[in-house]
Amino acid sequence: MTARDLGWLTPEIEEVQAHHRARVAALYRGETPDEVIAVGGKPMGRSHGLRGTAEIDMLENPEAWLDDVFADMAANATLFADRVTFRPLAIDLDYLGVHYIDAIFGARVFHCGTQFWSDELACDVADLEMPDLDRSDVFQRSIRLARLAVAASRGRILVTTPILSCPANIGVNILGQRLLEALIDRPAAARHALRVITDTILAVARAFVEVIPEPIRRYWAVGSRYAPPGFSQIPSCSTQLISALQYGEFFAPLDAEVLGVVRNGGQSHLCGRHSQHIPTWARMPELRSVQLNDRATEDIERYFHGLRPDQILYVAPTATTPVERIIEITGGKRLILQRPLEKPIPLRNGRRKEDSTDG
User: What pLDDT, on a 0 to 100 scale, did the predictor assign at position 113?
Assistant: First the structure.
């Protein structure tokens, strides 16, 4: 593989990226910054780490896709030198979106409009079997792409895994309402299916941990959900369909396993009404942050006061919960704002300890 030109990755860009990484690391250490930390923003470009998607199929033509990614990053290099808004520099291996694991199970995944969708599997909940990863074309080619991306990054650009998801999301994707019904009338079958799904996610996650070195390994949507090295992520969208009792009994231990694949635990993405699970999440040491957008943002006060003091809130403002309200509730503590800022927002009684490392 020919080394790709990194001449656009200037010392200034690398210094700014290190500055922002140090601020996030300090927040995770429990420090309060002197200015609001703002990460990410509206996607720009075709394929770089701001959540764009290349027109080239990344698994069918990995080298061409990487060429396109690097050309796109070079064309948008000034975005990564923004000292107010942190736009992490990353190669985002977001293949098939939230349906990547579905495809590994053999579900038909297809593109419709601007999103991917998947069909449910025909098997009974009790008959779900773990896929053979050695024979999974999607898995094998995505691992190959990860190796190519790591080599191309030369340790200077972050590389993400695909969306590895969580047992609840994958269960609903591939088994649909049948899984939710089984929680009530066939709990043994539900536990079997969730165990198979969890073991599959764990096997895939461990494979990417082996391929992508920790210093540059991140998880999907890093452009707006950046965390320091050693943290992971799960999307918990489907937990809004589950009662607090069912979540605690069937899903919480499995989510803890998935988050525990890496040394520091990780983040849960929330986009609906999930607040019934706050007490359970507050007791989950593996859960180090939650990401709130859409309906979930409206419950920010409940999350801020109900979660542990060491659990970070990533918050996307909404029309009903604007930036000012978010700052009023949190005081900027434990907060990463998912909104680009044109100028800094100072915080009272805040402080930042400059650190040149990720911590």
Answer: 77
pTM of the model: 0.92
Residue 359 has pLDDT above 70, yes or no: no
- Angle in degrees, CA 216, 217, 218, rounded to 5: 115
* Pairing outcome for strands 115-118 and 109-112: antiparallel
Question: How do residues 173-195 score in pLDDT, each as one tens digit?
Answer: 999 999 999 999 999 999 999 99
Q: How far apart are CA 314 and CA 262, in angstroms?
A: 20
CB atoms under 10 Å from CB of 132, counted, come to: 9
Distance CA 72, CA 162 (A): 20
In this structure, are residues 265 and 231 in contact, taking their beta carbons and an 8 Å threshold? yes
Q: In what order do the strands lie in the sheet with 287-292?
A: 85-86, 37-39, 335-337, 312-315, 287-292, 266-270, 232-235
Average pLDDT over all residues of the chain: 91
Query: Rounded CA gap, 299 and 275, in Å?
Result: 7
In a 13 Å sphere around the CA of 227, the CA atoms on its Cβ side amount to 33
How many angstroms separate the CA atoms of 235 and 20, rounded? 24
DSSP codes, 24-36: HHHHHTTPPPSB-
By three-state DSSP, how is residue 161 classified? coil
CA dihedral 172, 125, 199, 271 (to 10 degrees): 10
Q: Is 350 exposed, middle or buried (0-12, 13-18, 19+ CB in 10 A)?
A: middle
